[in-house]
Amino acid sequence: MRQKLARVIGGAALLALVAGSAACGNGGGEDTAAGGDQCGNKIAFFGALTGSSAALGINENNGAKLAVDKYNKENPDCKVELVPLDSQGSPDQAPQLAQKAIDDTKILGIVGPAYSGESEAAGPLFNEAGLVTITPSATRPSLSEQNWKTFFRAVGNDFSQGPAAGNYIKNIIKAERVYVIDDQSAYGAGLADEVKKVLGASVVGSDKVQGEGKQTEFSGVVTKVKSANVQAIFYGGYYQEAGLIRKQLTAAGVTAPLVAGDGVNDAAYITSAGAAAAEGTILTCPCQPATEARGTFAQEYKALNGTDPGTYSDTAYDAASILLAGIKDGKTTRPGLLEFVKNYNGEGVAATYKFVEGGELDPAQVKVWAFKVTGGKVVPDQEIPKS
Amino acid sequence: MNFDDLFSNFGTYTATGLTQGAIYALVALGYTLVYGVLRLINFAHSEVFIAGAFAAIWTWNGFGLDQNSQVSGIGSIMFYLLVAVIVAAIASAGTATVIERVAYRPLRKRNAPPLAFLITAIGASIAISEAFGIWTRRRPEGAPNLVSTEPLFHIAGVPIDAVQLLTVGAALGMMIGLDLFINRSRVGRGIRAVAQDANTAALMGVNKDRIIMMVFIVGGTMAGVAGLLYDVRIGTLTYSVGFLLGLKAFTAAVLGGIGNLRGALVGGLLLGVVENYASGLFGTEWKDFAAFALLVVLLMFRPTGLLGESLGRARA
Fold it and tell me: What is the pTM of this model?
């Protein structure tokens, strides 16, 4: 009898719950239908904020933060919230995190995912959910060939950066013997392949190391580079390994300059390598120097975040600004905002944005810059000519 | 397969491989000591190593040295190395002691099943590693250039530098010292006694808890020295490097015969050179494959490792 009673009460409680939530659902529906609640929207930043490759993600999140901060100051009664989604740069965690973003219906657009690996893992989910993403830094070429209608890339891809790095080695360093190393990541190997294509027979040797902090001891590859007697070394990968490789190369007496992509463009590279060994390293980037960004971006960024803008801070700012411009324009549904981004054509602080097929940035707008480590700092060297 | 590369650089691969192997061996000693006495795989040992490595770097930072400092003068180099090695050894031994007191001893008192020890060890390892990660904001920290990497002399055309000499020399020295300590000293006899039969040893008046504490302290000291050598050799430290290095060192211990001190040395050096040979022969991406394939094959034929278990046997 007692048990029965309990069941009845339990059932009633359940019913009440269901009814309650249904009521809430209805309430929400009415609001939207009436167009009364256009506010409380969110955009998310998706990338590594902790973990060994977080530096770039933090640059970008801070850039997006500035865009949102400015938007909220201009629209104090209809603010937009920036949700930081920390992927730790891991493709394994990306799908779960993407689902989290998709489930939050107030999130209308994503700045990110920051890296190529996580973009590949999360891309299909975003595509299915129709949630627009603008990545400021995932440069793997194949990402735009997946027929994801929600993928947009605010920078040039490795097809622009790889050949530029190759051209720099060939035309500016004028190296005839080059060693190419990559970290077997999609990003690093992709970049290394493009460089090899440009340099052809000048590549006298190549090797693959382990990325993601899995290798710290590179005596094997250092031995090979040393005996190959080269004039330049290209590394496709991220700063963590690049710093150690540079340090160990220099320790072994290899003085040839290291050329690497934007994944190495981080102050932590110089900490890892030590300023003396890092000196003269060339870093390419399908971006312009953040301090070259137009207007008062650099000052405003510093005022908000307390640091100077880093690599891709400006691009992330622009990506967030595009999403915010859509929301301001009343595109407060996911399909609406997606359509807005697709047809976007406008100027940001880092570049002029217009997306072509597959979500690629219009190739005419892609600039690749070379940066050089000088006196322990990464300073702009020159824009790399396209051929 | 690139035999040309392997043969033309054979000497360099061997020299650098032995250097790395020496570091593996020193860390491996900690695994093997604890396993020999407690039959416990102390997975947190990799963090004991990291504690020493960070302690050395922070000591140098305390003297105002960072990754860009160039120290000259044999006197000041020796001074900095000596101070750092003492601090590193104390930090590592301290960390090991804390892990033993906080994590393992309470479990032993309650006769916990082996699985509980294993999970506690992994838990302690991750917790300490994450604490270092948060503390260092997950950024790399650099060591000053203390020991020159200019070649000192050549053996059959292979350049040998001071870092390699220091690393291998220190590892061999520590190893010999430890061997004597275990085989000759009173505490060493106690360690062997507890390893053979803890209860009988207790009946003979050996204080088991004190001996176990000693084992952690000795293993920690070795790891501290390894941490310093790692700093000197690699020059940059990130909170997360302990995991893989610990795994390699554990592999080295098993390869040589876990519980066997000399086995740890042999296993470490062997692992170091095999990694480098594989790197030369197949490409660096194959080095872990080769190292672990070697482990699997070797254990098939010698399940107790190269030199077999010995700490627990009557004639250690």
Answer: 0.79
pLDDT tens-digit map of B133-146: 989 888 889 899 88
Query: Would you call the peptide bond into A95 cis, given omega within 30 degrees of 0 as the criterion?
Result: no
Q: How far is B52 from chain A (nearest CA, A)?
A: 17
Domain count, chain B: 1
Show the low-confidence residues of chain A (pLDDT under 50).
1, 17-36
SS3 label, residue A216:
coil
The yes or no reply on domain A42-157+290-355 and CATH 3.40.50.720 is: no
**What's chain A's Rg over C-alpha atoms?**
24
Whether B288 sits inside 8 A of A210 (CB atoms) is yes
Task: Please check whether residue B279 lies inside any domain of the structure.
Answer: no
DSSP letters for B157-198: TEEEEHHHHHHHHHHHHHHHHHHHHHHHSHHHHHHHHHHH-H
Nearest CA-CA distance, residue A235 and chain B, Å = 14
Q: Which residues of A touch B19 (CB under 8 A)?
A: 219
Kindly list the residues from chain B whose CB atom is less than 8 angstroms away from the CB atom of residue A207.
Answer: 279, 283-285
Residue B243: closest CA among chain A residues belongs to which residue? A214
Q: Tens digits of per-residue pLDDT, B92-149?
A: 999 999 999 999 999 999 999 989 999 999 999 999 999 999 898 888 898 998 888 8
CATH number, span A159-285+369-383: 3.40.50.2300
Tell me if B123 is assigned to some domain: yes
* Nearest residue, CB atoms, B279 vs list A184, A221, A252: A221
Full residue range of the structural domain in which residue B153 is found: 31-248
Query: pLDDT value at position B181?
Result: 94
- The rounded distance, in Å, linking the Cα atoms of A256 and A253 is 9
Partners of A153 in beta bridges:
A135
Q: Least CB-CB distance to B13: which of A51, A220, A274? A: A220
| ipTM for the whole complex | 0.86
Size of interface A-B (CB pairs under 8 A): 112
pLDDT for position B269: 95
